[in-house]
Amino acid sequence: MKRLEGVSIALGVGGGIAAYKAVELLRRLVDEGAHVTPVLTKNALNFVGLTTFRALGSSEPVVSLFEDSSPIPHTKLGQGVDLVVVAPATADILSKFATGACDDALSTILVSTDAKVVLAAAMHKEMWSHPAVMENIETIRRRGFTVVDPEHGRLAGGDVGFGRLAATEVILDAVVGQMATRDLAGYHVVVTVGGTREAIDPVRYIGNRSSGRQGLAIVSELLDRGAHVTAISTIDPALSSSYLEVVRVESAIEMESATRSACKDANALIMCAAVADYRVESPLVNKFKRGSGNLPEIKLVENPDILANVVADSKMYSQNFITIGFAAETENVEANGRAKIVKKGCDILVVNDVSREETRFGSADNEVIILSADGSLKYIPLAPKREVAAGVVDALVERLLSIEFEQ
Ligand code: CTP
Predict the structure, then answer these.
(1) Domain 188-406 class?
(2) Would you say residue 105 has pLDDT above 80?
(3) C-beta 194 within 6 A of ligand 1
(4) Domain 8-179 classified CATH 3.40.50.1950?
(5) Where are the extended beta strands (E) located within 239-321?
(6) By 3-state DSSP, what share of the chain in percent is helix, strand and coil, each rounded to 5?
(7) Which is the closest atom of ligand 1 to the Cα of 336?
(8) What is the pLDDT of residue 71?
(9) Contact at 8 Å (CB) between 214 and 252?
(10) Rg of the chain (C-alpha set)
(11) Atom of ligand 1 nearest to the CA of 327
(12) What is the rounded distance in angstroms from the CA atom of residue 121 to the CA atom of residue 87?
């Protein structure tokens, strides 16, 4: 699936050492289906050549305002694109955009467009921490534009610090995120992520093979589609958004309490976590030492079924609350899935076969059957977890819309 099919983008390139990375971004944007017009500043040409951009771009690169035969080329390009992404956005470009200054093609297009704007900042570490640059970024963000922060790493001249252009993938995700349908704006969704850990003693636990990748993909998809997300997670999601609240948990008991309380003011729960069915009845307070006599006996007791409990709660507080469960199966996948959706009482169950090499825990891809309580079924063939996440979120949106329609 191409994520930017039919999207028209102006790719601004500023005059910084990271300008060469814009070539890779250009190629990735085009691969994703976008029509890309490169717009380079004169300073960018000190670092990269026009020929490369001419070869890889979808339209002739723009450098000057005055080489087009049209009398108003800057507004023409600005009006025609869906998004302007600038990488690298130097301190100078950020300053011009913050103050509305226009003295070349890129700065003029930025001020004359009403398209989405994504600026991937890159500069030397001293410049990045300068109060003038920080204030410009604050101004830009306050106006609703996206600034992708630079990363820590090696900079020009051998220095190390914050200022290196973010990875191409991060900038690409920011662009895709801006263009995604925001069909969940105004909705609050709780997602559980990762696998629970049940303590044996302070250093040992009973765990499972869940990597949390599918859950994180769902969190990213929900954020891109405008939802407010609470992630109840056993791992650090390494995602930041003002629409994301992360509650870190370890055990099933902690996950249950955080999930039930977050669901009180939510529209949906996506129970993606692999929850241990059993926990150690009495975890040891101190580490069990080797050779300390008899081998310890671990007595297990059953954990609460979080999903079933939230389904029961939701019947009490809202008819419209949607519950989505996941089922990890190793045999009779569809039949077991159908039995499980009835047993759990959830609206949707995403069933996957974890016995297969390509879809076992921790893999990059997944293949699932999305079952609905009404018996309908949707099959998502082997695809990256982010695409599977999009299918799960589509099913959620369909269910939300059908409930709203019924009312
Ligand atoms: N789940 C839960 N609480 C548990 C166990 C599971 O909320 N104590 C949720 C999972 O997050 C998942 C769904 O229930 O969304 C199904 O999990 P799964 O492990 O497939 O099923 P179990 O209920 O554990 O049944 P079984 O192990 O017998 O297959």
Answers:
(1) alpha beta
(2) yes
(3) no
(4) yes
(5) 244-248, 268-271, 278-280, 300-302
(6) 40, 25, 35
(7) 29
(8) 59
(9) no
(10) 25
(11) 20
(12) 7
Q: Mind listing the pLDDT tens digit for each residue in 282-341?
A: 999 999 888 877 778 899 999 999 999 999 998 887 678 999 999 989 899 999 999 999
E strand spans, 166-223: 188-193, 198-199, 205-206
The reply to whether ligand 1 has any atom less than 6 angstroms from the CB of 306 is: yes
Cα separation, 123 vs 94, in Å, equals: 11
Q: Where are the domains of the chain?
A: 8-179, 188-406
Residue with CA at minimum distance from ligand 1 atom 24? 277
Same fold, 8-179 and 188-406: yes
| Catalytic residue, candidates 208, 309, 320, 336 | 208
pLDDT digits (tens, 9 = 90+) for 351-404: 998 888 777 777 889 999 999 999 999 999 999 999 999 999 999 999 998 887
**In this structure, how many other beta carbons lie within 10 angstroms of the beta carbon of residue 48?**
18
327 Cα: distance to centroid of ligand 1 (angstroms): 7
Q: Return the axis-axis angle of helices 213-224 and 168-179, rounded to nearest 10°.
A: 50
Tell me which residue has its CA closest to atom 21 in ligand 1. 327
Tell me if residue 294 is catalytic: no
CA 101 vs. chain centroid, Å, equals 33
Q: Tens digits of per-residue pLDDT, 70-95? A: 656 667 888 889 999 999 999 999 99
Give the residue, by CA position, lying nearest to ligand 1 atom 27.
Answer: 277
Cα separation, 358 vs 383, whole angstroms: 10
